[in-house]
Structure formats: structure tokens, C-alpha cells
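Field guide to reading this record: the first block holds the primary sequence, the second block holds the structure written as C-alpha cells, and the final block holds curator observations. Each block starts with its own label. This record concerns Cyclic nucleotide-binding domain-containing protein, catalogued under organism Strigomonas culicis.

BLOCK 1 — SEQUENCE
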Amino acid sequence: MDIQNFEVGQTIVRKGELNDEFFLILSGQAETHAAIESAQQETVPLGRGDTVGDIALMYAAPSEFTAVAIETVQCASLNRHAYKIITSRAMEERRQRYAALLDHVPYLSCLTPEERSNLAETLKEGTFSQGQRLICAGAPGNWIHIVVEGTLEVVGSNSNVIATLHEGDCAGHIEFLYGHLSVANVVVSSETAKTARIGKRMFDRLIGTAREVMMHEIEEGQSYEEYRQTMRSEARPQEDTTPAFDAPPLYIQSTLRQQEGSMRQKEESETQEE
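BLOCK 2 — STRUCTURE
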């Protein structure tokens, strides 16, 4: 990594420009400026440990904000090539670790190694404390959690523990499969718990044949009897109409669509030439 210094008032990254560097602030203070509405501007302070330029570098998109030093700032910087090498290596190590975890998830045993590998690449890791609620009854289901470490409890409407989840167990998949609001609370019961989670958009894209296996277990398995009773009662949950939120930021989506369109045109052109 290189070390760069920015004096007061000097711009670190500029809105609308495609920066080729990622910055980690080592010392000093900076702030970002981004328009949130036509007549408003949001300012966010930055200090030691904060990063600048990583999202734009990751998605090859113009910066959405301008970052300016408000006192002398020292940064460690990586160029695009070095950043991709480091992040690719870290992503590969994480992918292998999660792929090994997915091998032990019963619902996903029907997926091919390639499908499990693709799924592993999308998982996001999180660590949670005892008593923390990961899924709230009556709320939209945002994530499927796969337990990596620790234990979770599925708690029913009468505060009864329906199930205890251990390594390789899933929570939140029912809501994704059937499209309704969450039917139970899922709470961390161990001192800490670590999960690998996936959002609905990627779940729908990557889950493949495992969908039928999951649905069969839910409709026939003994551990889901309380859920089936709930769905047959007047207390059945409402449909979840909220959009999937695990898409890239809005300002990046248009860039990604343009890139996808360019790739399709290139593929069509190559096909015609053949």
C-alpha cells in the first residue's frame, strides 16, 4: 500500500469521477458531501479507519460523493489492480469456507458443487450477541440465516421455543419460499452467534432445485407442524409485498444495467461473426 497525504481543503475523491484508488484513512479528519435531494446536501464525517472509494472501485462506477480533507489527512491507498488481487484472494478463501459449510446443510445437498460454490460467494457474514433478534414476527423477512457458530432459538407467539438451531441449520427460508411476513422470532440463545446470510433476490436466483426440497420438508416434516397449524388458522401471516432490498445501491444499478447491456451486445456480435 502507498501512503498519501491530503492537506486541508484537498479533494480525496470527486463526485462523478471514476476513481482508480481505494483509500483507508490512517489519521486526520475528512468529510463527504453528497446531494440527497435537488436542494439538499448530506455531510458525513470521516476519520481513522474509515474508507473512501471502495464501492465505486468495486462496481467500476463513478463516485457518488466528494470527499474533502478538513485537516491534514494521511491515507493508505491501493490502486485498482492491487485492490482486485487482494479482494479476490479474500473472496476465494471465504467462498471455500462457506462452500464447506453448505455441504452440511441438508436442504442444499441436492445442489451441484458449482451451484453451492455460486451460493457461497453471495453469503454475508454477521456476528450477533445473546438475546439479539435476527428475525421479528410480523415483519418482512430480509435474510435467510445459516448458522455458522453458536445457537439460535425460534420463538413462537406464546413465547414458546419451537426449535433450537445449530451449525448448518437455517432460519428465514419459510418466508422467502411462501412470500409472507415472518411467523416467529429468531433470537440468539448462545453468548454469541455467527451466521452466513443471503437476501431474497440472490436466494431466488441461486437456490435452484433446493426450493422443492425445502418446501417438501416444510409441508411434511414434524418440526414444522406449528407453522402448518398457523397457516391453517385465522392468525396466518399477511403477504410480504416489500421489494427485495439486497440489490446494489440505486446509483449503481443503472451502471450495472449498462454494463450488462454492453456485454450482451458484445456476445451477440461475436455470435453473428461465428
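BLOCK 3 — OBSERVATIONS
The two ends are 44 Å apart (CA to CA).
Residues 250-273 form the longest helix (24 residues).
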